[in-house]
Amino acid sequence: MKKLSERIKSVDGILNEAKELLKEKINGSTSFSEIVNLLENLAHQVYLNEELEAIASYLRDNIPEEIKTIEDRDELIDRLINHIAKLIQERIASDLPNIRRARVGSSAEKILQIALRDFEGIECEVLKKKKKEEYLPDLAV
Q: CA dist 76 to 44, 69, 85, 115, Å?
């Protein structure tokens, strides 16, 4: 069964979708700062939609068979709510902040890269550290 983190698009997938949405919202007079802010906000909205879909599919996939076979509506609702609350408490509540933290750092660098490269025509790349102790700037222009 897929983990919650595997159900959410990659940072690149989310940013690509946000970039396409951004193209519809900007014009020739949109400043670089506005582009970065819009791209960040759109990426956040795309991520939240992905996260909601991931949570829903995760919860659906984790419903035990004995709950699925309950015919009494009130008992079904009660057992389902209790099961979902337990999943949230035991798994989702700790997984989501970790997923968000893992994505936020690379997202900021990639947002600047997309804004510079795709909207300002400035070639740049996100640099990768070879060693943990090595210092590199976040972006090379």
A: 35, 9, 14, 49
The predicted structure's pLDDT at residue 58? 92
Q: Which residue has the tokens 């009130």?
A: 74
Q: How many domains does the structure of the chain reveal?
A: 1
pLDDT band for 47, please (50, 70, 90 cuts). Answer: very high
8 within 8 A of 47, measured Cβ to Cβ: yes
| Distance from C-alpha of 77 to C-alpha of 61, rounded to nearest angstrom | 17
Structure-token pair, residue 70: 């309950």
Domain span at residue 117?
A: 4-140
CA angle centred on 61, ends 91 and 87, rounded to 5°: 25
Section 69-91 average pLDDT = 92
